[in-house]
Amino acid sequence: MANISNYNSTIFPAIAVGNDVELATAQYKTLSTDDKLGLLWIAYTEIGRSITPAAPGAARLELAAGLLDQIKQMSYDEQLQTMRDLVEKRNTPVTRAYGVFTTNTKLGFWYVLAQLMDQKIVVPVPAGYQLSRDAKKAFETITLLEMSQQITVLRNAAAEMGVDPLF
Hints:
Elements: H1 5-8, H2 20-29, H3 33-46, H4 48-58, H5 62-72, H6 76-88, H7 93-99, H8 103-118, H9 133-143, H10 147-159
């Protein structure tokens, strides 16, 4: 696989990183909250089939089941706000509960959440939704990575969310 850092040097020139995973993670971090959510949804639906064995296999999703059930009981507006709260690290009961999950459980949580969105059990992405220019570039960077690297970027994104209740 060719180094994608050169490909992206003109897209995100202020990001200095040592490898392709770091570059993709740094690009993701520069996005707005809604762009992060949109990119995660697209990534999980586009490359999610490959995440399936990595996430649920390594994750203890039974630990996340209660939180996912709680989210399913919310209105669409509350669900969207909860996802935004997770991304923005707002201190709420849901973000604190998420914060105690392992990184793999967090990855699996977002995988299941994307499935629930696809099934319209959780607030779906609006019809005709388009990623912003920067989110598209970040997604392109992710798609150029090897599968294990893609999963690492998604794991990095999931790990950054929520609030650790111990701090």
